[in-house]
Amino acid sequence: MEFGRIDIYKISIMELRHLRYFVRVATELHFGRAALQLGISQPPLSQQIRMLETELGVQLFARSSRRVRLTVAGRLFLDEAKATLDRAEHAITVTRRAALGELGELSIGLSASALFTPIFADAVTAYRRRYPDVHLDLTERPLSAQREGVVAGTLDIGVVRSGRRLALPPGLVATALTMDRMYVAMPAGHQLAATDAVIDIAELADEPMVHYPYDREGFQEDLYRLFGSVGLRPRLVQEAHEMSTLLGLVSAGLGITVLPGSLRRLHVANLHYREIAGDSALSRMWLFHNAASPRPTTQTFLDVILPHAKPLPEIAIPDAA
Question: What is the CATH number of domain 104-308?
């Protein structure tokens, strides 16, 4: 009978230990040495090999009083057995690493300024270095879309800006990461750019503003709160959908803009920044996730970033209803 490729996944009672026993005997070609290396006695090893041969219906070894050698079938089966053991070991390793958060995927929704905020940018760098086999997906989304994504499980983590504590559904947990002062960015030739002094928000009355399409929650709410603290509303004249475009429009003289101080790390020619005065000119960055069913990769990212979160003073803003 011709001995072809054996599909060992279809063999009902064969166990991985039988394959390990076989491979060791086939490598040593000596039952005594193989038994010693496997940590068992020789008679049970010989019995297990015979059970394997019975299950397969073929003779794997030709035995004599002087030597043991592989049959043709045994040589073919040796390659299959080694490949199967390698696949099994790989499967075990992958499963264990996935459970530890060392493999898999991590999907994070971001506010526009997140990657320019040191605590988050440094955490991403450290995470990529520590867990290079995790596929990291970073997508800019407004707060509402991040919240829906985390609830639905299409996002693992949300990172947003909001002066007030986030309004989140049950099961979602938010942690404040850091807090920035707000700055006004203006063209270098603007009349308010003659000094670096802290500026009062009232000085920005009637100034045309280029703005980012923020969600009604989060930073846009902070912006309206900031102007509302002195009885004003921002005069929004143009929307830019990319942060680089926004700063380019400001640099070109189409208006001013208000942004978190971390975005000053974006170096754009002809821009001048002034810090905005007052307790209302504060912007918090939050991280939130689903505590009820986090992926292992979510937990490993939290372990990287949360030790660096800074205790933040409360801002005198009522929590969202």
Answer: 3.40.190.290
